[in-house]
Amino acid sequence: MIFQAVGDFDGDGKWEAAAAYRLQDELIVEAYKHNGWIWIKTDEWRGGPHLIHTLYAAPSGDRGHGGHALVIGWQQGQTAYLSVYDWTADGLKEASRYSFPQVSRSEFVSSRAAALFPASVRTLKGTQWGYIDAAGKMILLPVYNYAMPFQDNGLAIVDQNGHSGVIDTEGRFVVEPRYDSINPFSEGLAVASDSKGAKVINESGAVITDREYPYINSFSDGRALFTAGVPSNQQTYGYLDTSGKEIIPARYLEGTDFADSRAVVKVKEQEYMLIGKNGEQLEVYPFAFVGSLSEGLLAYQEKEQGQYGYINEQGDVVIRPAYSGAQPFRDGRAIVNTAEDYGARYGVIDAQGKFVIQGVYNDIRDLGEKRFGLGRAIDPAQPFIGSVYAIADGDGQLLSGFVYSDPEDYKEGYASVHNGRETFFIDRNGDRAMGLPEVPGTGTLAFEGELIRANVDMRLSYLDRSGRIVWEQNREIPLTPPYRVNEAKYKPNKDYLVYYPQVEGMTDQAAQAKVNDTLKELSAVKPVDPAAQLDYSYFGDFSVAFYQKRLLVLGLEGYNYPFGAAHGMPSKLFPHVDLGSGRFYKLKNLFKPDSDYVKVLSGIIGKMIKKDPQYSYVFPDSYKGITADQLFYVTENALHILFAPYEIAPYAAGFPEFVIPFKEIDSLLDKKGAFWRSFH
Could you tell me which residues come within 8 angstroms of residue 319 by beta carbon, excluding any fewer than 6 positions away? Predict the structure, then answer.
């Protein structure tokens, strides 16, 4: 097997390449440098019969430059080694060697994975993702549409060109990006889905299931819940084992994950069962509903639409039904709801059904480490707007006032909260943690190895424990000089946030100012009362949809969510800006003045809806043609026409888009017009 790494090994600001491999039981390390035309091998080092585990470039500033050292993990006999090489005038030289008795490759991989963090970069192609190290240096280049954190097995799920794959810590694809989605690995296995269905893959990417399924859940306790049948009919549930075989056939109406070798399933109406790992019957529960087993207790309903109580594993009633909602037990406590008619009056009970926190709260969150977040309604007349939280212990003692928003789970004795102005950590006493970062804005903080991951105001950054920013997403998108697009931020209220574009580099400064004022207005930057409690939230962002020659096409997206609604309403705009003149082009500017472009485009799209199966979701008889100012954007060779949600299709369809090649409407195009010449 060949291991590869790239880095600036000699500190000259240009990256080199290195490769390590075995040839006839001999370890060979080669170094290559690019001379501007081709790669040239500059050095070679040969060693004994070693088993290579990993190879990568590590940032190093202790050799008089800010380049990289080459690190090789290898094993000889029962001893594992980590060798660090410097690139000197005499070639590669081993600078340090560390030995670790009986260390497996997985331990090397886990260490490497823990030191890599997904990071985003704004580019002309949209937001791209790569991986940085703890010093904030980009180790795996940003070539992914999205990147998830590395797991302990040294693998990470990434998205490239709209498909999901899996990479190792060197950036090599273990699973090529060919799936619609891949779930995180659990017990060495992951669920991958495509148009044919869901299947299980191992850490080498091999499919271990014999066929596809409508749904497979992640593995838990050596079993994965799956469904058979189709949603339009009665689906049944069964379980796969870690070899991908159907260890328990799909014969249940419902199922829960296995834990401690047991799971709860629904056999038929008014009958649930506790089963073992091979499907053997352990207990039968003659109730309308039974939840999963938690600390020896299960939530249940005696009859449909009835109240909830708790039974023990043998089916004996321990806590009589008295709640409109009942959550699983953890640390001897369970959150219950006492309100009727879908209201909210949450409390916390112990294993005997005694209230340790009275059922009077708009929301309660079990934060772990025997701590709860107690939520009071911001506006009691409109409880759906949300809550402000206090921290309480497992006995119901208040540890703080009602001053926090969105408390996260405790980890290592700390929980992330915000107060509408800044995001910070609190300790188990409910007090602001001293010596840890406070970040302006609203969001979450989380410990990630040596760093703290900050998802604040819809932007990602990494900080060290002192609060120093190690990495943050760039705020400038470079175009061709002298043009660039800068990101500006507008947040007048905790529930109103807009990132909007501002253009720089135009020769005519007055025209540039006018362009930027227009972009600001189109991005929904408007007066909002900072002190008001809004009855909705709004988020706006932008991207570069297309750029060529002088034409800049920006994608402005917004999402307005009325609190309490089933969903919000998204919006899109595509301003087409001529960076030479500052002119904003409209759809009609693309066509000859005397052309009936509305009729022609309407006809083309009408035929696409009728003949192309991908548009089968369009509401029957809803399409009546386009308007003169229909939502659109251009790319180099095509016109893209879009419709708003609900306009011709269900909300779930998003913005139906139709791509019309320019060659299909060539006779209509005004190729002498300013719009066409701005990008041709």
Answer: 297, 309, 310, 349, 352, 353
